[in-house]
Amino acid sequence: TKKNTKAAKKEPENDEEISDEIVSPKKKTAKQVNGSAEKKKLLNSTESDYNIDFNIKKDFATKIVTWNVAGARSCLQKGLVEYLRRENADIICLNEVKIGSEKEIPKELKIPEYYHYFNIGKGNPGVAIFTKKKPIKVTNDLPEIFTNDNRLITAEYEDFYLVSCYVVNAGQGLKTLDKRLEWNRVFDKYIQELDKEKPVIIAGDLNVSHNEIDLANPKSNQRSAGFTKEERDGFTKLLSYGFIDTFRELYPKQEGAYTFWSYRFNARAKNTGWRLDYFVVSERFMENVVDNVIRTNILGSDHCPLVLFLN
Amino acid sequence: TKKNTKAAKKEPENDEEISDEIVSPKKKTAKQVNGSAEKKKLLNSTESDYNIDFNIKKDFATKIVTWNVAGARSCLQKGLVEYLRRENADIICLNEVKIGSEKEIPKELKIPEYYHYFNIGKGNPGVAIFTKKKPIKVTNDLPEIFTNDNRLITAEYEDFYLVSCYVVNAGQGLKTLDKRLEWNRVFDKYIQELDKEKPVIIAGDLNVSHNEIDLANPKSNQRSAGFTKEERDGFTKLLSYGFIDTFRELYPKQEGAYTFWSYRFNARAKNTGWRLDYFVVSERFMENVVDNVIRTNILGSDHCPLVLFLN
DNA sequence: CATGTTAAG
DNA sequence: CTTAGCATG
């Protein structure tokens, strides 16, 4: 095992130089200046974040990051690329990129050293995978249904399938709970099919907090999207097919560990959050999992990134 | 003739103190304004703007300002109130305030010392009049048609009617030219009715450049909204009923005098503008007009303010 | 290119 | 509260 010391790859899709600048100072109007001042002071880092793996004691060979960026173009202005460069993961899974077409993808997002796969479409959440190693195969969305939802990318590697996804949100007043449950059925079936061939790593925003420990206000959210019995049971069912929620496996009693905080009500400062983003892996793959870290203080979205360390 | 030396009014709708920092509550003559050393430097002012009436040689009793603010809440962030306090007009006409309801009006907009009249509605341009002297009567919109368009306010004073309006834009591809021409018909009729009783001052964005001298690129805009033959003839027709375009009357040969510049193409820096905003007055009232100044370097909107000085 | 609006989260 | 989309200018 080595400590993330891969040789520099040749640039696969982009021949730009990597800029030393932190943020390219895009011209702004007077009104934007206020906002940008806050963004500018490296937006999403603290000193302790700088050595980003300072708390990872064990060796690891592979690092995977997943982040619901809630609009990649906005997140870009808040330091997305600088964070990703610092994280230097082998595989980057982004969701809710909210980019409607290929030609709207800012070129800065296509970080050199990575192959870039986007599954995007107008009005849809959109997901992306950036990967240093070229996958054997990459496919978009589910095979039967929701095939134009731009919610899921499957990347097949030598030793596993990586399924990065943004699961259907049950919506205000649970108005899309039915669609969500239909998604669960098709998704579970799809995952099980993959699992017959190779271990599966599911990464992304599963839009559910599994248990009371996974959100700040379980009592008042019994009928809120993300904590209904139906959604929670759906997550239990997924695990029952032979999968493990890596974070909870590693930190079974850890309270206050969330990955999402509403932009409203100053929720992040008060840590009134939800754990909605996960790495879920095939049981037999758990032995390869070294750690799963929630990057709580990386800003730029209403979600924070999660990192999975593999040996 | 007095020099803008009205007795201090009692505060009509708001009991806040008027800050000495911005404008002394005591009225000043134009000369005193010139001599006073105000400290607050505004985002949208230049040194020569600071003594805002420096170029008005004659005495005046009344000052009226009209400004298409292109969103009053945005303009507020860019110094709208500071400018208005500095201008210290007797009557302020704002259009395109783009505020959908009374409760969305920021309280800072309700400048003490003025009575405030808003004609606003969801999705409509919206207009407002602030006035130090309470009008005899204030009415909204045209009497027959477009009565819910929130485009026009009529304030009746002792000596004149003031009609502040935002005229229908003929639209991209002239798709609302018909509506515009229908507006012209009803508007002309309305103005003529008022003119039978008292002189009329029309103030606002008339959404037309009358002649080639009134825009930077007349040749290429023959079929653009604001410079079609139909709209130009409409303006000629309005004048034919006995009205005068005060700016052109005072400065018949002045080129490059515009009141609007597209936000696009760096138009303002290049002065590729249009004269779309006017004071148009009854012929018999012209003797009361001292000057009409275009405040070219007041920023905050894609239009600039216009000031009418009356004796 | 900017504003306010909407729908989604 | 924030984003991206849209319609209007």
UniProtKB/TrEMBL annotation, chains A, B:
Site residues (Transition state stabilizer), renumbered to this chain: N207
Site residues, Interaction with DNA substrate: H303
Key words, A-Z: DNA damage, DNA repair, Hydrolase, Magnesium, Manganese, Metal-binding
EC number(s) given by UniProt: 3.1.-.-
Residues reported to bind Mg(2+): N68, E96, D205, N207, D302, H303
Gene Ontology biological-process entries: base-excision repair
GO molecular function: DNA binding; DNA-(apurinic or apyrimidinic site) endonuclease activity; double-stranded DNA 3'-5' DNA exonuclease activity; metal ion binding; phosphoric diester hydrolase activity
Record note on cofactor: Probably binds two magnesium or manganese ions per subunit.
Important for catalytic activity (site feature) positions: D277
Family: Belongs to the DNA repair enzymes AP/ExoA family.
Name this protein carries in UniProt: DNA-(apurinic or apyrimidinic site) endonuclease
Source organism: Polypedilum vanderplanki (Sleeping chironomid midge)
